[in-house]
Write a structure and sequence with these properties.
2 strands, mainly alpha, 4% strand, 12 helices, 71% helix, two-stranded antiparallel sheet
């Protein structure tokens, strides 16, 4: 039953996130946490996320914007290290508030509320007419990379922040999806190299069947997303990103993520 639930979740989420450029790891990780300890869930989902992005990059990578990959990707990678370092040093700050539902405690940390507010701000840029018209010029790419990388390292939501910025950078839908996928491969390669040192601790070999099933389901979902890409407009992608940013922000603010 666990394998079926994880596979169905991976399949549905992969289709939804093919166009947004983020969300597979963010949404799938809590589902895995139902059946596995936190550190195991993060590692297993990281592997699924990596192979899914490899597939997407292989399918549409040729449309990636090289300027974005360099001017946005390099600052984002470096800044994410600073964000991760800061997270390690503030993770022990007391919770802002907590509450209980059905004997389960939900805790909201300061960093989660900060990121939730940031995501809502980005989401508004995609739905308010006066803000939708704003575009970020190419010379702002390093700034966007630094911001998304830093807050991504701080919160783990690099994909959400990256997509929120890139969708305003004047890219075509093909270039946006391709650039997001290639950048994700860069980040996944880095973090999985860290996880590799802990594979034995997370009992990866004992859970390979779950990883394989979820990965296959996610790849199938992404293939379906590629087939309907031509029918999708950039406006649809913008609205999708706005909705997902709102949902993730609410989940963070409520302590669900």
């Amino acid at each position: 039953m666990e394998m079926i639930i994880l596979s169905v979740a991976a399949f549905i989420v992969a289709i939804l996130t093919f166009f947004s450029g983020f969300g597979l790891g963010t949404i799938l990780t809590p589902v895995f946490m139902i059946f596995f300890p936190v550190e195991v869930a993060i590692t297993l989902v990281g592997i699924v996320h990596f192979f899914n992005n490899i597939l997407i990059a292989g399918m549409v990578g040729k449309s990636a914007d090289k300027t974005v990959l360099i001017r946005f990707g390099i600052p984002a990678t470096l800044a994410s290290l600073a964000g991760a370092w800061l997270l390690m040093n503030i993770s022990n700050l007391p919770d802002l508030y907590s509450y209980t539902i059905c004997e389960k405690i939900f805790e909201v940390k300061p960093v989660k509320l900060i990121i939730a507010s940031l995501l809502i701000g980005f989401a508004l840029f995609n739905i308010i007419p006066s803000l939708k018209a704003i575009q970020f010029s190419r010379n702002k790419l390093p700034i966007g990379g630094l911001l998304s990388g830093f807050f991504g390292g701080l919160s783990g939501l690099l994909g959400a922040l990256r997509s929120a910025f890139l969708i305003k950078s004047g890219l075509t839908k093909e270039a946006f999806i391709a650039s997001a996928a290639v950048l994700s491969v860069f980040v996944d390669t880095t973090r999985l190299s860290v996880y590799a040192t802990r594979f034995s601790e997370t009992s990866l070999h004992e859970n390979l069947s779950y990883v394989n099933a979820a990965t296959f389901a996610a790849l199938t979902g992404s293939l379906i997303g590629k087939r309907i890409l031509k029918k999708i407009t950039l406006k649809f992608i913008q609205v999708t990103i706005a909705i997902m940013l709102f949902l993730i922000a609410i989940a963070l603010g409520a302590g669900l993520l």
